[in-house]
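Model it.
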Amino acid sequence: QAPIARDPTWGERPSFDCRNAASLAEEMVCTDAVLAAADRHMARAYRRAERSGAPIEALREDQDDWLAYREEAALRSPRAVAAAYDRRIAELEAIAAGRARLGGR
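Modeled.
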């Protein structure tokens, strides 16, 4: 899927400020409405996992691992980044629902 314009409208922005995009994956997310929506969905799932009582330190470490995984996916394609988001969202939702533990990738 082709990237959208560099400055997406408000509803298409990711969960982070694109002015501070510092990596290939972040740039990709900032220029693709589908990836930006996935990033917002992932951020909501992360907050639900935090509120569920998951150990914050472990959750943060797991998220840092995922960010590195997303960077590797960005070297392949936007589709690989989208798949990384889909997987992470599912993991976070399972953690929030108490169906999964941290660290299982």
